[in-house]
Amino acid sequence: MQLLNRFRPILTAIGLQLIVLIGLFLVIQTLWQGFSITLSLWTKVGIQAGGALLLSYIFRLPMWWIIIQFTAPFAIMLAIIFNLPTWLYPLAFFALLLFYWNSADERVPLYLSNKITWKALGDILDTGSSTKSTKPIHFMDLGCGFSGTLVALAKRFPQHHFTGVETAPLPYLVSLIRCLLSGHDNIKIQRKSLWDVDLSKYNYVYAFLSPEPMSRLYKKITAEMPKDGRFISNSFVVPDFPSNDTRILDDRRQTELHIWEIS
Ligand SMILES: C[S@@+](CC[C@H](N)C(=O)[O-])C[C@H]1O[C@@H](n2cnc3c(N)ncnc32)[C@H](O)[C@@H]1O
């Protein structure tokens, strides 16, 4: 049951495509038998894509699923027309899996914090370390991606400690190499699930995930993080628990950094 729940978006997406396909089949039959009308190939593909988009919207799938639902019929038809070799499909699937390991299961895709966010995070650490205490900062990036955030902060604050965890194989490998090459000895990368991290060791925890894990994560944060710590979430709020502060950054997507003071 839990497994079924985890894969609900994929199953819903496939189910909606099938419903549209059945509807399309009935339309084709009716038009042919009643009016001797045949639809062109691309009209059929367009109806399939448009129908899947509409149903996905009605069923409130997330925006990135709606885009996939619309583009998939065109992509499949192009693959059939160009007769792509069959080994390309498992290869593409495997390559995507290495990057987007956590997308289906945890519903957290890979997208990265930008330089303006790195700078804003650094400013938050700066005010924190000057006004709160003189204790060294132990910063954790939960799901560190390619570790751009960690490298930028480790460079700016050589006196503090920066750790990231990542489970997706390729981002983990890139992070490891990037941190080694950066030459900073105050960064650590671990191949570990964020749910297995003991947060009591970190006075700053950063996460840029998705709406999905936020309630569960906040429970973990409040149960484990030390008093006086700060939890910073890029873009995603915690339902029913408003942050103490929100900074809106001057970048293209007006990134919001939500900050909770742990008390
Ligand atoms: C949106 S990206 C953010 C990357 C990075 N923190 C940044 O801000 O640039 C989220 C990352 O979290 C990772 N992730 C998702 N679930 C995870 C889990 N349970 N444990 C560790 N990493 C996870 C994903 O693989 C992805 O790299």
TrEMBL record:
The chain crosses the membrane at residues 7-28, 87-104. SUPFAM superfamilies: S-adenosyl-L-methionine-dependent methyltransferases. It comes from the Bacteria. Keywords: Membrane, Methyltransferase, S-adenosyl-L-methionine, Transferase, Transmembrane, Transmembrane helix. This is Trans-aconitate methyltransferase. It comes from Kiloniella antarctica.
